[in-house]
Each structure stands twice: as structure tokens, then as C-alpha cells.
Amino acid sequence: MNVVVVRTVEEARKHLALRRPEEKRIGFVPTMGALHAGHASLIENARSGSDFVAVSIFVNPLQFGPGEDYLRYPRPLEKDLDVCERMGADLVFAPAVGEMYPVEQRTFVEVTRLGDHLCGPFRPGHFRGVTTVVAKLFGIVQPNRAWFGEKDYQQLCIIRKMVQDLNLPVEIVPVPIYREKDGLALSSRNAYLDSEDRSVAPVLFRALTTARGMIETGERKAAVVKEWAKRVLTQQERVRPEYFEIVDPIELQPVDEIAGEVRIAGAIWVGKTRLIDNLAASPR
Ligand SMILES: Nc1ncnc2c1ncn2[C@@H]1O[C@H](COP(=O)(O)OP(=O)(O)OP(=O)(O)O)[C@@H](O)[C@H]1O
Ligand SMILES: [Mg+2]
Predict the structure, then answer these.
(1) How far is it, in rounded angstroms, from Cα 34 to Cα 57?
(2) Is 15 a catalytic residue?
(3) One of 15, 39, 117, 126 is an active-site residue; which one?
(4) pTM, to two decimals
(5) What is the CA radius of gyration of the chain?
(6) What spatial distance separates the first Cα and last Cα of the chain, rounded to whole Å?
(7) What lines the ligand 1 site, CB under 6 Å?
(8) Strands (E), the chain
(9) E strand or H helix at 39, and its extent?
(10) 158 and 126 in contact (C-beta within 8 Å)?
């Protein structure tokens, strides 16, 4: 293996400090592991956009709500290290929980407003957990650039705002959603889907493309578009829609009249698995 694996903050810092003088651009891809082709695409982008690529693998308890899947979240570390190696990562930081939170964490980063809709209301405290751990990871790795997937569009917007508001010296680079052939966005949680779940899961992408099609062909009323999309989603009896929303792409506030570019985003439950996805759409 060429990739260096470190488990502690001190080792990560030591290793990065050695490389920083010569490797000018430090690239960073934060993940929760159970790596798939979407993560591989992030690492590949980081590889071509930096001299040194660090990947973190950390299932962050702070971003899971009570009753969520923190304990059963997949942790296939050996397989993940193979993916990192294959995609050309230089360093993997895979800390234990006690390494990231050795004492009671009493400092939190919270971005207001951007979490008011979409996933925010359904996962109280989630984005605060994400921004807090990403701020900590940025403090440890001190990357010049960090890559985030558009699959988690709200997360991407919130991280960008955090970086702007806190003057963090990191450039946030978005990566398009990597999908299966049938449109399903890759996600570590897809591993929870049994074969029947898997066969209905692409319905979310179909609802999003239906909505985008309506917007592109002149429908301006968000309510009309959402009504149709929900009809698509409820055709599947295993599927329980959580939200389906049309928001402005910057502030993530729901729009009534579609006048410019929007983000269409949805979350559904397929059996016991929660899936999210989104698309950009603009009226012609
Ligand atoms: N299909 C995908 N395409 C592009 N980026 C992705 C995709 N899936 C995840 N990512 C990105 O990978 C990074 C790490 O995400 P994470 O480790 O939470 O994986 P995940 O697939 O989102 O898992 P989960 O669904 O369990 O949250 C994030 O920036 C996320 O947006
Ligand atoms: Mg995720």
C-alpha cells in the first residue's frame, strides 16, 4: 500500500506538516466510509485538483439523531482503504470516536437559515453535527481545497456558508451526483436496500426528472409541479415520501413561482432506508 493510514490527530498533523512545504495544494475529501463510486469520483477530482490528497473516514456520532442508524452504519475499513489506494489518495485519516471527541465537545458551528427546510426539519441537529465535525477536520488537515458531493446539496451549501462566514482558508469544490444506470444516486445507505427496495428506489430520481421536465416546458407554479411529483412517488407502495420541495439554489427557501434556476430536492423512505436526491432546473 502506498496510502498512509493514520488514526490520531497528532499523526495526521505530523504527516501533513512533513508534506506541506513541497506539496503546495493539499486536497481533502471528508467521508463516513463505506466508500462507493460517488466517493471514488470525489477522490478522483481531488487527485487532479491537488498535489496531495487526504481522505477522512469517520462516522460522526454528532450528526446522527436519536433512533437513527449510527450503530448499524457500515464500517468496512479494509475495503475502504483499498478504494483510497486505488483512487490515488496519499493519506487516510480514520480516527476513533474518542480521538475526535476526547472531552465533552462544547463548541458547535451552526449555520442559520440554510437548514430551515429540506432535510433540516426532519433531522434536528444533523447539520450542526456536520458543520462542527467538518470545522474540526479542516482544523486538523488544513486543506487548501475540499471536495463535496452535490448528492448532499443542502450540506454543500451549508459548508460553503460556514467557510465564507468563518473566513476559513479552504476552497469548497462541488462534485456532480454519481448515479447508477437507472438513476439511483449512489449512497452508502443503499447497502440497506433489499432487492425489492432496490427495484423501487429509482422512483425518487424519476419524480425529480418529471418535475424538471415540467419546469423546463413552462410550468411556473411550484405547487403544480410538486403535486405531480408526489403522484409519481406514491405510485410505489413501499415508498413513503418525506419531503419534495422546490427551492432557490442559494438560500434554499421554497419558491411558489418558478422564475429562475431552482433546486428540486426530495427525501423518501423505502422500507427502513432513507434516501435523498436533487436536481437543478431552469425554466426555458
Ligand atoms: N452519489 C454521489 N455522488 C457524488 N458525491 C457523493 C455521492 N454520495 C455521497 N457523496 C459525497 O461523499 C461525501 C461523503 O458522504 P458520506 O460519506 O456521507 O456518503 P453518503 O453516500 O452520503 O452516505 P450516507 O447516505 O450514509 O450519508 C459527501 O460530500 C457526499 O456528498
Ligand atoms: Mg452522507
Answers:
(1) 9
(2) no
(3) 39
(4) 0.98
(5) 19
(6) 50
(7) 31-32, 38-39, 41-42, 148-149, 151-152, 175, 177-178, 185-189
(8) 4-6, 26-31, 52-57, 91-93, 145-149, 171-175, 239-247, 262-270, 273-281
(9) helix 37-48
(10) no
Judging by DSSP bridges, how do beta strands 239-247 and 262-270 pair with one another?
antiparallel
Q: CB within 8 A of 102, min separation 6: which ones?
A: none
**Distance from C-alpha of 151 to C-alpha of 278, rounded to nearest angstrom:** 7
Per-residue cell: 254: 421554497
Rounded to an integer, what distance in angstroms lies between the CA atom of residue 212 and that of residue 154? 18
The residue assigned the cell 433489499 is: 194
Q: Under a CB-based contact definition with an 8 Å cutoff, are residues 37 and 177 in contact?
A: no
Q: Which of 147, 151, 184 to mutate to test the pocket of ligand 1 (most atoms within 8 A of CB)?
A: 151
**What is the whole-number distance in angstroms between the Cα of residue 42 and the centre of ligand 1?**
9
d(CA 83, CA 101): 26
Q: 91 is written with which cell numbers?
A: 493519506
pLDDT tens, N- to C-terminus, the chain (284 residues) = 899 999 999 999 999 999 888 777 999 999 999 999 999 999 999 999 999 999 999 999 999 999 999 999 999 999 999 999 999 999 999 999 999 999 999 999 999 999 999 999 999 999 999 999 999 999 999 999 999 999 999 999 999 999 999 999 999 999 999 999 999 999 999 999 999 999 999 999 999 999 999 999 999 999 999 999 999 999 999 999 999 999 999 999 999 999 999 999 999 999 999 999 999 999 98
